[in-house]
Amino acid sequence: MESPALAPQTISYQIPRDVLIRLLYRRTFFRPRRFRSVILFLAAAALFYIAGPEYRYLTYIFVGVIFILPWAWHRAVVRTIDQTPWYADQKTVTFSPAGLTAVGHNYTSELAWTYFKAFSEDTSYFYLHLSNTGFDSVLPKAVFTAQQQEEFRRYARILNDPGVRK
Length: 166
Known about the structure:
This protein is of the alpha+beta class. The chain has helices at 17-29, 32-51, 56-83, 146-157; strands at residues 9-13, 91-96, 99-103, 108-112, 118-121, 125-129, 137-140.
């Protein structure tokens, strides 16, 4: 018989669309490589400004891009979530030492823990990193019991162990 600590655990949840948009926008936009690109745009704008009056219009273009970037990025996140409605649909997730099984309205997805790149959490959510972009699987902590949270952490922490990951 399986010990209770290794038995599969099941949670059900639905993250509202606007909450998901806010979370994923924040996690994808405020990344170091976004700041590096803004710094490069500012440097290019400064160089064109210094280059002389005949290149000043390029300065305005680069500064305009910097101001439009947050809005455009927000629109990209909204479009992605709207085109993939299962992000905000009701889900039932079962997790065990082998991995996760997510069941939604018209899909079932079984993923081993090794499919995810890393694991992190904040005060309200667990994040299973699918890539380095910040567009992660989000699981609300409120739907977990205290015991389920500890088990989930134990299974997911292996993702951050450099000896286990390639």
